[in-house]
Amino acid sequence: MLARAARGTGALLLKDSVRASGRAPRRASSGLPRNTVVLFVPQQEAWVVERMGRFHRILEPGLNILIPVLDRIRYVQSLKEIVINVPEQSAVTLDNVTLQIDGVLYLRIMDPYKASYGVEDPEYAVTQLAQTTMRSELGKLSLDKVFRERESLNASIVDAINQAADCWGIRCLRYEIKDIHVPPRVKESMQMQVEAERRKRATVLESEGTRESAINVAEGKKQAQILASEAEKAEQINQAAGEASAVLAKAKAKAEAIRILAAALTQHNGDAAASLTVAEQYVSAFSKLAKDSNTVLLPSNPGDVTSMVAQAMGVYGALTKAPVPGAQDSVPSRSSRNVQGTDASLDEELDRVKLS
After folding, report:
1. Compositional bias of type Polar residues: which residue ranges (predicted)?
2. Are β-strands 62-65 and 38-41 bridged in parallel, bridged antiparallel, or unpaired?
């Protein structure tokens, strides 16, 4: 009798499962076991027991004892993580592009009671919910965002499934989109867009390289001009310093020569020595006539050296003649005036060199 009752119960369960939606529901990994009074429940499985047609308890893994005839194992739920392939389906994006998309769903039964009595086929229900949620979420995004925001799309689908499947005792752990198939024409346009974007980036990079090169060349020319101007400035400063030193040295030498000449003129026969020097210079200048130019200015008697020397000495005497009588005591002698005049001219020459 017990065997007959068990067979009748199994036949009823099989009929109920076949009537579910045209296919056998995958509610258990090990099928529906028979009530043999002493039962051993495997790990990570939950056996739902009914007593006289009503829910009685859920058998825990390990040893369990049931009453024959009265107790019946109605559902066997697997507590492991379940992987479900979501079939490929079509969806329309926000910019009216039709996509063919499929995915993988990872879920786990958290409450065996709700999974057994809350929905007829929990896995099938979750699969359908994943497809509808995927279509609704894709309708909110454009084609470009679908490829860029796959992670956010997966998270949105998981949240929507968990909100609806909470009363079924099922929790969706994650959802992953496997493949996204784009129509051929859209694929070609996307390829052209990618190529245009690459050409644009290449052109921008080339222009930036040209600009950097021009900037570097201009900066190099600028630095070269600055260095050249600084070098020219230093050269001019050095040249001016050298010329100033040379003028100062010449002035000092000339001043020393003037002092020596003045000292010589104050000695005995100084006037005769001055006359001799003037005569020598006259002869030397007369020998150079008409060498540099054809136009020559000559005195009325160029051959009379004596008269020229006398004329030069007369000029010299007029410059150094004595002052008016009565002031002789307060005015220094001619030789001392010559020395003082020489010193004054020397000082003026030194001041002019310093100012230059």
Report:
1. 330-343
2. antiparallel
Instruction: Enter the DSSP assignment of 167.
Output: G
Q: What is the mean pLDDT of residues 178-198?
A: 82
In terms of Cα–Cα distance, which of 170, 163, 155 is closest to 103? 155
Same domain for 123 and 191: no
Asked, for residue 65, whether it belongs to a domain, the answer is yes
pLDDT at 311 over 80: no
Residue type, 90: S
Where a domain ends, among 266, 286, 302? 266
| Residue ending a domain, choose from 182, 207, 235 | 182
3 state DSSP class of 331:
coil
Q: Nearest to residue 138, comparing CAs of 128, 152, 124?
A: 152
In a domain, 202, yes or no: yes
Q: Give residue-wise pLDDT tens across range 63-77.
A: 888 888 888 888 888
Same domain, 159 and 196: no
The total number of structural domains that make up the chain: 3
- Take residue 61 and report the two structure tokens written for it: 């893994």
For the whole prediction, is pTM greater than 0.85? Answer: no
Domain assignment present for residue 262? The answer is: yes
Quick one: average pLDDT of 41-48? 88
Identity at 54, one-letter amino acid code: R
Q: What is the mean pLDDT of the chain?
A: 75
Domain that holds residue 244: 183-266
Nearest to 128 by CA among 161, 174, 162: 161
Q: What is the pLDDT of residue 165?
A: 85
28 vs 220, residue with greater confidence: 220
